TrEMBL record:
Residues 2-229 form the ABC transporter domain. Keywords: ATP-binding, Nucleotide-binding, Transport. Belongs to the ABC transporter superfamily. This is ABC transporter ATP-binding protein. InterPro entries: AAA+_ATPase, ABC_transporter-like_ATP-bd, ABC_transporter-like_CS, P-loop_NTPase. One of its GO terms (molecular function) is ATP hydrolysis activity. PANTHER family: ABC TRANSPORTER, ATP-BINDING PROTEIN (PTHR43335). It holds the Pfam family ABC_tran.
Length: 307
């Protein structure tokens, strides 16, 4: 398990990471989400020991980062970092050996990951001759080739075509199923929603949400929608009678009325509407992770609220 405990990082006056705490349990994929400059890469760099913290700590299975446990972490840095002129296969073997694999095991692992990421034919090409998307696949192979227990991936999906996204997604799901703890940052919230057990949202270095996608959606569901063929005038009378403040919209063909409201007296309204017509749609509007993210990121900050 990866534990981030009250981690802070200051760059001069800027608090890039501010008392941040969360965990990535074994076998879970945790999505790390935040606007540009929120502090995701800084947190990941500190976790990898590339950058020092101003305060707080990062623990890998209860221990601070060391040469030993660094070997069990697959890292894909934002700035990438492979050798452009080295052949794909050679650098993966080099990395696997660096992480302690013997020659034969390293060669086998490289062939396995190149095949899994559809790169076998590029094994003897220089990295720089590959397209950016394929270079990114090699970066993922580099993070995986020594069979890490943890994965820290900084925007692994950026710039990938849909096929590559699918390949990478499957790889991450399989790794999680075999017990690997994965933290990945991404701005592709549809992917985060699909892949992650848990989502950590940060804003200006601070934690604003740490929950399952399902729980976040449940908490963020505050709007109801009802569509009916009951006459608009009748519906408006019902709303007045029940004192429900709702916005109604009459369909283009005038045969349907839809309304959205905060869910007050939803059952009573449903019962009344059914006496006057058919209910064609009824229920809470479940927000997407993108909607929730916008709400969280655009919400007034606490200090502004308290002014
Ligand atoms: N070495 C540095 N020196 C000074 N400021 C830095 C340094 N590294 C990062 N920052 C600042 O820290 C803040 C957090 O940056 P960071 O790269 O962690 O954000 P991020 O969430 O990864 O953003 P993005 O989604 O754009 O990659 C930003 O304001 C950034 O400008």
């Amino acid at each position: 398990m990866l534990s981030i405990n009250r981690l802070s990082k200051n760059f001069g006056d800027l608090k890039a990471v501010n008392e941040l705490s969360f965990e990535v349990p074994d076998g879970e994929i945790v999505g790390f989400v935040g606007a540009n400059g929120a502090g995701k890469s800084t947190t990941m760099r500190i976790a990898m020991g590339v950058l020092s913290a101003s305060s707080g700590e990062v623990l890998w299975d209860g221990a601070p980062i060391s040469r030993d446990n660094q070997r069990s972490i697959g890292y894909m840095p934002e700035e990438r970092g492979l050798y452009p002129k080295m052949k794909v296969g050679d650098q993966l073997i080099y990395l696997a050996r660096l992480h302690g694999l013997d020659k034969a095991t390293a060669a086998k692992a490289v062939d396995h990951w190149l095949a899994a990421l559809n790169l076998s034919e590029r094994k003897n090409d220089q990295l720089q001759k590959l397209s950016l998307g394929n270079q990114q696949r090699v970066q993922l192979a580099a993070a995986l080739v020594f069979d890490p227990t943890f994965l820290i991936l900084d925007e692994p999906f950026s710039g990938l075509d849909p096929v590559a996204v699918e390949v990478m997604s499957q790889v991450l799901i399989e790794r999680a199923q075999s017990g690997v703890a994965t933290l990945f940052s991404s701005h592709q919230l549809d992917l985060v929603e699909r892949l992650c057990d848990r989502v950590v949202i940060i804003r200006e270095g601070r934690l604003v949400a740490n929950d399952t996608v399902a729980n976040l959606k449940e908490k963020g569901t505050s709007t109801f929608r009802l569509v009916t063929n009951c006459p608009a005038q009748t519906l408006e009378e019902l709303l007045r009678e029940l004192q429900i403040p709702a916005s109604t919209e009459i369909g283009k063909d005038l045969s349907q009325v839809s309304l959205t409201w905060d869910g007050t007296k939803s059952q009573e309204l449903l019962g009344q509407v059914l006496k006057h017509g058919q209910v064609l749609e009824y229920g809470p509007i479940v927000p997407s992770l993108t909607d929730l993210f916008k709400t969280v990121v655009q919400a007034p900050k606490e200090e502004e609220e308290s002014k």
